[in-house]
Structures are given as C-alpha cells and as structure tokens.
Amino acid sequence: MSRATRRLWRNEASDELKNWPRRALLVWVLCLIGAVLLWVMTIAANRAVTQSRSASAEITAIDRSDAPEQLVLVDQLAAPNSDALRRISETALTLHTRLQQGTELAASLVSNAGRVAGLAVALRQDQLTNSNDSFWQPMSESIADLEKAVRLGEVSDRASVGLISELRTRYADLRLKQSEATFAAPDTRAQEESSSITAAGVAPILMNIPWSLRLLPWLTFLLPLGCLAYGFYALQARLRERHVKRPKQGYNAVAGASQAAQMTAPAMQQNRNVAERRTQAAILQLLDEMEPLAEGDLTHEARVTEDLTGALADAFNQAVHELRRLVKQINRSSEQVRSAVAQSRSRTFSMAKQGAVQAREVSRTHDRLEQMQHDVSSLSEATQRVARYAQHMAVRTQSAAQAVARSNEALTLMRKQSNGAMRSLQRLVNSTQGIETRLADIKTASGRTELLALNSTIQAASQSSVSELAGADSGDETLNHSAQNFAELASDVSALASLLGDSTNDIDQLSDVIRDEATESLQAMQATVLQVEQTEQSSEDARHHLDEIATAANALEQAVTEIASRTQAQANGVVEVAETTRVINNITHDSANALKQAVEDLQQLENLSSSLESCVHGFRLPAESSS
Amino acid sequence: MACILFRVGKWHWAVDVASVHRVHKQVSVQAVPGTQPWFLGVSQIDGQLLPVTDLSLWLGQRPATGAVLHLHPDLGPCGLRVDELFGTQNRPLVPSALSASNTLMPGALSQVIEWKDMTFRVVDMNLLVQSPAFIAIIEARPA
C-alpha cells in the first residue's frame, strides 16, 4: 500500500487521476474476495479448534477424575442444562416412536430409546440424583447400545441413524457442559490450557495448529480496514482531480497551469490521448494477468511496470505471495492435523479398548471383593463364636480341674478308709479261722453227744425190753419206771445232741459264709484300693492336664479374640476397597464411553481438516513452493 | 418200732434197736491173717474181743468208713462197720413189695421205714449173723 501510494504521488499527470475510480473498484473487489476467503478459512479453523478443545476438555475431565478428592465432585455433579435435557428427551422420544414403528427391531432397542428419554425427563424433573449410578452410566450404556445396533446393521433406517447420531452429539454436549460446570474454577482458562497440554492424543492437535491460522481472524479485520483506507485515499484523489480541472485549487492546479503554459492545446490533447491509451492497455494487461488468479492459479504473477497499474501489480503480487504462503501453510497444517488426528484416534481407540478391558476386570474384581467381603464377614462371625466357645471352654476346664481336685481328695480319703476296712476284714478273716478251730471242737463234742445219745437210746431200748420182760414176769413198777426215765433221758440227750449238731452245722455254715464273704470282701477291697490308687493317679494326671488345657484355652481365647478383631478390621477394609472398586468401575465405564466419544470427535476433526484442505485445494502453487 | 438207720454202699438199712448193744465211733481193729478181706479183724472193747466185719466189702462194695455197730451179745460177738449212721427212728414199718430173696443181704425183710425221702429196708441181724456166708471168714486156700 505504501509503495503504491508513493508511486501515485510520483505520478503528477492529471490523466492518470481520471482512472482512479476503476482502479479503486478493482482493488476493492480483490480485497473483498480475499477477506471473504480468509473469513471462511477462519471459521473452519475456529470450528476445528473448538472441537479439539471440546475433546480435550472431556478427556481432561476424565483425567481429572483420577484424583480421589475429585471423585466426590463427579458424584455430586451440578445440575445439567435443562434445555439440553429437553432436547435429548425430545430426540429420544422421536427415536422411540420411529423404532416402535419398525416391526423387525428388537424390543431392547426400543426399550433403550425409551430409557434414554425417561432418564432425561426424570433428571430434568429432579426425580433422579445427578450421579454416575443413576443417570450418566445408564444414559451412556443405552446410547452405546443404540450405536452398537447401528454398527451391527440392526438399525438401517436413515432417519433413525441420524437421530441416534444426534442423540450422541447432544449427550456429548451435555456431558461437556456438565464437566465444565463441575470443574469450573477461577483459573479455568489456565487449567484448560494445562490440561490440553497434558491430555494425551488431543494436545498434539492443538499444538500443531499454526499461528497463521490463529492470525486469520485479525487478517479478516485488517483487510477490509485497509480497503476502507484505500477507498478514502481514492476519494481524496478524486477531489484533487477536480482541483486540477479547476485552476487555483491546490498544487496540482498550479502544476497544470504551468504545464498548460508550456504546451499548446492540441499537443496537450494528443499527449492526453496517448497516456490514456497506455493506461488502458496497462489495465487490460493487468486484467489478463489477473484472470488465472480468479480460477485459483497462484503460479502467475503480474508484471510490475512503470505504468499506472505497476503499483496495482506490485500489490497484487504481494497479495499473491501472501496467498501462496497462506495456502501452503494451510495445506501443511491440514496434513499435520490429519496425521495427528489419525495418531490420536489410534491411541484413543487403543485406550478405549484397554479401558473396556479394565472396566471388565474392575467389575470382576468388584464381584470378587464382594464375595471376599461376605467370606470375611462370615469368618469374623465364626471367629467370634470360636472366641466365645474358647472362653466358655476355659471356664469349664477350670471348673473341671477343681472338680477333679476335689475327686482326688475324696479318692485319697476313700483309699485311707479302704485300707482301714481291709485291716478290719483281715482281722475278721483271722477271727473266722479261730471260730472254725473252736467249731471243730464243738463238732467233736456234738459227735460224741450224738453217739452218746445213740448209745443212750440203744441202752434205753435195751432196758425197756429187759424191763418189759422182767416186769411181765415180776410186776416190778420201779424197774419199768427206771427204764422209762432212762428212755426219756436218752431222748433228751438225743434231742440235745440233735440241737447241738444242728447248731454246730449252722454255725459252721455261717462261719464258712462269713469267711468266704470276708475273703471276697477283702479281695474286692484290695482290688478297690488298687483301683482307687490307680484312679487317684489318673485323677492327678487329669487335673494336671486340665490345668494345662485351661491355660491353653485362655491363650486360645486371647488369640481368637485378636483374630476376630483383626478379621473384623479386614472385613471393614474389604468393604472400603469394594466401595472404591465400585467407584472406579463407574469411572472406568464413563472413561470408556468418553474415549469412544473422543474417537468420534477426532473423526469429525479429521473430516473438518479434510474439508479445510479441500477449500484450498483449488489453488495452484508454483512447483518450487510445493516442493 | 425203734430202729437204727444206716447206709452201706448204695443201700439203706434199718435194724431193731434191741439187736444193737452199742455204737462205736472209732475202734482199733487187729487184722487176723487167713481170713476174708471183708473180715477186718478183732477189736478189744471193754476187755472183750469183738470180731469186726466190713459190711460194705462183704456186700461187694468199697470199704466202709463209718461207725461200728456192736450187736447185742445175745446174737454173739460181732461188730459191723457201716458207711453212715443216721441215728434212731421210731417209725412204723411199711410192707414192701420186695421179696426177701431179692437181695444179697441175708435176713433182709419185706418191710421198710421211710424217713426224709429215703427208704430203709429192715434187716434181721439174727438171720444175718447166722448165715453161712457171713460166718465163713476163713479164706479159702487153693488146693
């Protein structure tokens, strides 16, 4: 602009000033075209940057969820946008209606669509808590099932597919707004920048966007401003031309007056015509040289001459140079963006797969932890019961030891008494032997008495027969009476002998019985004493063993009590770990879904990069520039 | 009738009290050579010699171990060693179906006395001591 201006100042011919409006119009049109082009590229670049930042923000939210203190923030999400929920519910209801009309669709798909609508309506009407369990995870799973059905070809209706895609987009927007609302802070901008730097996959995209694209919005404003300045200058030049036509107006008027004084009128007219033709030719040549530019060919440049159009050609070439540099930069940036997006998409897809595996393993670990929690709780209860049993056993064992000690004392007393009884029985047996000795004498006397009685009886019978014979002969009564008395005496002696014999036999039998019983009792007492001694020894051993058992039971009770307390602590720890695992499981699910969404966003970013590249595809660059 | 009841071997016998003079519990017997084995010998009782016969051996049983019945002097000097003496009993005689010849014992009558579930056959000692078999105490020497 400055060189063109200086060139215009050097041209003092007033003929050139006559062509000012057309030149200004041409430059104005070119600037306008460039501005529009830059505006389009700026919009495309801003959109790519915005989508990259969205993906970065979502992944940053996922990365931030690794911190334990921020897990609470995720569980206590802020209230989502009511309008976004309303749009989701409307889209889901429309989808539900369309899916219901399809007869060959699975009922689970229709149910998923209805579930999405129901969740959105319920959260909007505050019938649900805004947490991962109640809203975000079911919503994400339902939408993922619908998308899976689309991928498997179960849903082929174009409108339904579009509704599912729209549903995903609105859910992603809602999620992004939710994440921004959850993690918003005074230094949000700095955190976003730092998170965009640390977020894997998306950060390189933002890093690779050239500064030229970021300057495009400024160029968009600078170019129209420059055009306005040029137009203002053109208006000023027009006014000067009027001063040239009218003498006494400005220095041009003085110059024209002096030139008019030097030339004659026909010569001036001829010179004016020649200059006008040269100018027209130069303009036509410039238009011809600008024609390829309208078709996007940036390989041509306008020739810079000393004519009036030289300045325009110079400015035109400068604009072409800028456009070349811009198109080249856009192509390079687009290529870098596509490469980075492809790499990030691959990594994100890999992370999504690993996240799914991690979610499955975490879910399995959670189930195992719940089982472990149940087992540890049962073990704790069993250990507590064992502790009570051990305590009870210790008490009982002490009681048994005391009882055994008392039994031992009783056995000792019994042994002493049995020894006394044995000595008594031994004396009884000895006494029985003395009785038997005396009884033999009594038996002898009894035998003699019997014999005496028998002989007395025989003699009495003999006397009786003699007295009968003699009495019958002599009639002596005294003889008969004597024989009778003798017979009675013999009878008494016989009775006495019989009584003595019977008594002796009875005493003998009783003595035998007493001796036998005493002997048996003595033997039994000896066996009893021996058994009592053995029992006493066994009882003493049992008492020692019971003391040892009581000591061991006390130690066992203490150990089992400690085990019970530690098992309870273990159970509490397992409960906490299970709860943490459940939270991690939810987060992992969300992370997997977010990664899937990030893959799709990267796909869109790649598409935008392709569209940006297609925008500048029509421009042709010189061979040395492309190389 | 008053009888003295005794046992010889497996048989129970009863004799009239009048036919017995005394009963000796233990007697010292002096064997006589050349007599039958059942003739135990002679014993001195109250200054008089008393021939003693083992009634059990005489009946072909084992030697007797009991008292010696000193028979009345009217029946001649004779002592009979029996196995067991039951004493005197004054009980009525009961006729028996056994005949007098149905025994080895000479003088056995067809009357019995029952006492304590035992049956004692009455023996007439006069017939016994006069029987030839009882008298033949000389041992028969081979010719």
Task: Supply the key terms.
heterodimer; A: 627 residues; mainly alpha; Helix Hairpins; 3 domains; 16 helices; rod-shaped; disordered N terminus; B: 143 residues; mainly beta; OB fold (Dihydrolipoamide Acetyltransferase, E2P); six-stranded mixed β-sheet; 3 helices; globular
Mean pLDDT of chain A: 76
Residue windows where pLDDT falls under 50 for at least 5 positions of chain A: 1-9, 59-78, 183-207, 247-251
- Number of DSSP helices of chain B? 3
- Secondary-structure element pattern of chain A, one letter each: HHHHHHHHHHHHHHHH
Largest sheet composition of chain A = none
Q: Helicity range of the residues of chain A?
A: over 70%
Q: What would the principal axes of the Cα set say about the shape of chain B?
A: globular
> What fold name goes in the CATH topology slot of the largest domain in chain A?
Helix Hairpins
- Low-confidence region ranges of chain B: none
Span of the ends, CA to CA of chain B? 48 Å
